[in-house]
Amino acid sequence: METTPNHKQRKFKELTPKELAILRTNSKLSDKEIKMCYEGFIEMCPTGQLDQKTFTSICKTFDPDTDEQICGDGTVDFSEYLFATAVTNFSGDLEQRLEFIFDFWDISEDGQLDQNELGRLISAMYDRARIKDRHGDNDPHKRAKEIIKKLDINHDKKISKEEFIQGCQRDEVIAKLLAPAL
């Protein structure tokens, strides 16, 4: 079985072109400014991960009402931070948000989400929604398997961007979670 690199297992040396493009689009910063911020992040967190206390402290400078339990597993890596920031600040309609989310979590860049990629996406959404129960039906990889089974039109055990967007648009909970704030 082919595995894709896990965001949390990646060695942090420099930003990938994909991460740089996401940050450029959503922050309106120049590549130079983004790289300076990233270098500061790595200097502050040489492991590439923020612990819960540090992340909460940073978030509270922007939003004083930040929940102390915002980190699902106790840490936030740069990709998770990037994802949370981009989804929160992304101003497009639901379809544009879903395209962004799909592209961000398509780690293998093959235009499809496999069970591992979708499981990591679900985990990140749980973190953002502060859902701690990840057992039984709430297990992210179990949910990913069920979602793929339901949405996979061509039965290749992966979902294409089109399958992902159509399935999410039909899901009232996801549509509500990702709807642009008015």
Automatic annotation (TrEMBL):
Highest taxon of the lineage: Eukaryota
Keywords: Calcium, Lipoprotein, Metal-binding, Myristate, Repeat
Gene3D superfamilies: EF-hand
EF-hand domain location: 93-128, 139-174
Protein name as it appears in the record: EF-hand domain-containing protein
One Pfam family in the UniProt entry: EF-hand_7
Organism field: Adineta ricciae (Rotifer)
Similarity comment: family membership: Belongs to the recoverin family.
Lineage: Eukaryota, Metazoa, Spiralia, Gnathifera, Rotifera
InterPro entries attached to this UniProt entry: EF-hand-dom_pair, EF_Hand_1_Ca_BS, EF_hand_dom, Recoverin
CDD domains to which the protein is assigned, alphabetical: EFh
GO MF annotation: an example: calcium ion binding
